[in-house]
Amino acid sequence: MRGRSTSRRLLACAAFVLSLAFTSSASADSYIVLYKGNAVPSSAKADVQQAGGTFVHAYNQIGVAIARSDSAAFAGRLGKDNRVEGVSSTAGFASRLRQDEVL
User: Fold this and answer.
1) What local confidence, expressed as pLDDT, does residue 25 receive?
2) H/E element, 14
3) How far are the Cα atoms of 38, 72, 92 from residue 43, in angstroms, in the given order?
4) What is the pLDDT of residue 11?
5) Taking the CB of residue 58, how many other CB atoms lie within 10 A of it?
6) Residue 38: its pLDDT value, please?
7) Whole-number pLDDT of residue 6
8) Domain count, the chain
9) In this predicted structure, what is the pLDDT of residue 93?
10) Containing domain of residue 84, as a range?
C-alpha cells in the first residue's frame, strides 16, 4: 500500500512539472488540485468554476486536476471540498531563461 502512495505522489509531481507548460503570462495563476480518490470527480469542472476558476485538464489516473484562477480566494474555496486533499498555486515555481541562455 505504501508503494502505491509513493507512486501516486511521484505521478502528482510529474503532473506538476507538466502543469508548468500550462502557465501563462496573464494575471491568472495555475493551480494543482490533488483529489483524495484515485480519480478526478466528474463534477470537477463545475466545482472549479463554482470556486472561481477555469478547469484546464484532468489526470484521472492519479487524481490530479489543473486549474487557473485570478481569485485570491480560489484555493481556499476549492480546498473546502472534502474530496480535495490539497490545492496549490504554481506561482513562483517556474523560472525564465534569459534570451542569451536559450539554445
Assistant:
1) 42
2) helix 2-19
3) 15, 22, 29
4) 55
5) 22
6) 83
7) 56
8) 1
9) 76
10) 2-101
Q: Are 94 and 20 in contact (CB under 8 A)?
A: yes
In angstroms, how far is CA 101 from the centroid of its own chain?
28
Tell me how far CA of residue 20 lies from CA of 1, 9, 33, 89, 91, in angstroms.
29, 17, 14, 11, 9
Helix (H) or strand (E) holding 18: helix 2-19
Query: Cell numbers 488540485 correspond to what residue?
Result: 33
Residue type, 57: H
CA distances from 29 to 4, 11, 38, 46 (A): 30, 21, 25, 18
Report residues of the chain scoring pLDDT below 50: 17, 20-25
Instruction: Find the CATH number of the domain harbouring 66.
Output: 3.30.70.80
- 24-46 burial, b if ≥16 CB within 10 A, otherwise e? eeeebbbbbbbbeeeebbeebbe
Kindly report the number of other CB atoms within 10 A of residue 84's CB atom: 20
